[in-house]
From TrEMBL:
One of its GO terms (molecular function) is ATP hydrolysis activity. It comes from Salinicoccus cyprini. Keywords: ATP-binding, Nucleotide-binding, Transport. Belongs to the ABC transporter superfamily. Residues 5-236 form the ABC transporter domain. It comes from the Bacteria. This is Metal ABC transporter ATP-binding protein. CDD domains: ABC_Metallic_Cations.
Amino acid sequence: METLITIKDLNVAYQEKPALWHVNMSIPANSRTAIVGPNGAGKSTLIKSIMTLIKPISGKIDIDGKDVRHALKRIAYVPQKGEVNWDFPATVLDVVLMGRYVHKGWFKRPNRQDSEIALDALKTMKMEAFRNRQISELSGGQRQRVFLARAIAQNAEIYIMDEPLQGIDITTEKLIIDVMKALQQEGKTFVVVHHQLDTVEDYFDHAVILNKTVIAQGPVEAIWNESNIEKAYYEMSGHHD
Ligand SMILES: Nc1ncnc2c1ncn2[C@@H]1O[C@H](COP(=O)(O)OP(=O)(O)O)[C@@H](O)[C@H]1O
Ligand SMILES: [Mg+2]
């Protein structure tokens, strides 16, 4: 498999406290990659580093062999739930249209074609009936659908999502996974922080097990085993029964 995202010796700290050290990673193009690890493992830090939202101490992040800064338009980012202000006055359609600004710049008004693309994306996520609803009124699952619709409207090649299945209903979970698999068929790549251990094999084909550094990475069938999971969830935290 061809490598899409390459991370070389990434080191990140918050006020001197290390969050990620010596992270080396290859994420294959057209994969559904899960990033898995305990709370505080640095999963969100890793994702924010890829999105250039955090300045690392050192390290290199490339997309197709070039600095990630050149590829940000190709990436759609769905942040972790708590990091988004949902009281912001905006309709569902407004939020999805934001996906179009990546291509147009912030000063051009969206045109009819942008609206059609946004509505199509809402249809894919079965949210078109909610298009004029305020986002503050939506449930957790509906908000996650809207965010995925925005990413689809962006026509991104790479979807980076931080715990998109956290705190949502099972119908939305199944829909997100179905859409992810369908978009993979169209050539898209997914990098998803995933908090459920029991669904990794069903939902993903590649995985990175992380706890401050990479414990294991590779095809799910090769690396998803008890020994690697224990290393990440028990040994590294100093917890032994
Ligand atoms: N903005 C921040 N300032 C200081 N420490 C932070 C900040 N963000 C995260 N951390 C710390 O860095 C570590 C990794 O956090 P995070 O990347 O959010 O982990 P995960 O997403 O795997 O739960 C944790 O110990 C967390 O407390
Ligand atoms: Mg996190």
